[in-house]
Amino acid sequence: MLKSYHTANIIEAGCDEAGRGCLAGPVVAAAVVLPENYKNKILNDSKQLSEKKRKELKSIIEKEALAFAVSFVNHKEIDELNILRASFTAMHRALDQLKIKPDQILVDGNRFIPYHDIPHHCIVKGDGKFLSIAAASILAKTYRDEYMEELHQKYPDYAWDKNKGYPTKAHRDAIRKVGASPFHRSSFKLLPDEQLQMDF
To answer: Which helix (H) or strand (E) element contains residue 75?
Structure first.
């Protein structure tokens, strides 16, 4: 079972993002403040859960969290900033929107740009260790998935309803066939270098 907190008797916000490795669409971050000693046996890293479970947990988190916020940084900003800075920007924007100011921030991963004067801890695979980070991972993932499913209605060629913008074979085949959409990240390598076939 995941831990309820990193440090006792203070307000902690868990932060995570979704969509860093995608070829199209935004990077989305969430910040979540859970009640102290919060318990939930199902809540886990979003990657370990089915889509159905993530959707169920999204509603539970939004109802039971003391505060939560979700922020999008779009593909154009990603191209301007680079994906790492865009991820941190999304997290900062989510923290900006929290109705409760945290005493400490728990961030999934090994890097973060400090947020104001609030201490933070970078925790590798934190979404599988702390409930607040897991909750943030679920909100970031579900909000982003819903957005990509909406975009799929306008751009069905890329199967974003299934791959959510990640570089699957079907996604890359579609780029090869019809070209890039206005929502693709131009700073990303959309297609791998094609290997030259040489006859000897």
So the answer is: helix 75-81
Q: What distance in Å separates the CA atoms of residue 5 and residue 103, rounded to the nearest whole number?
A: 12
98 closest CA partner among 148, 144, 132? 132
- Model pTM above 0.90: yes
Q: Where are the domains of the chain?
A: 12-149
Angle at Cα 105 formed by Cα 99 and Cα 110, nearest 5°?
Answer: 140
Choices 3.30.420.10, 1.10.10.10, 3.40.50.720, 3.40.50.300: CATH for 12-149? 3.30.420.10
Identity of residue 47: K
User: Who contacts 98 (Cβ-Cβ below 8 Å, separation ≥6)?
Assistant: 13, 31, 33, 67, 68, 69
Residue-wise pLDDT for 119-151, tens only, equals 999 999 999 999 999 999 999 999 999 999 999
Which H or E run includes 51? helix 51-64
Model pLDDT for residues 31-70, shown as the tens digit of each residue: 999 999 999 999 988 888 999 999 999 999 999 999 999 9
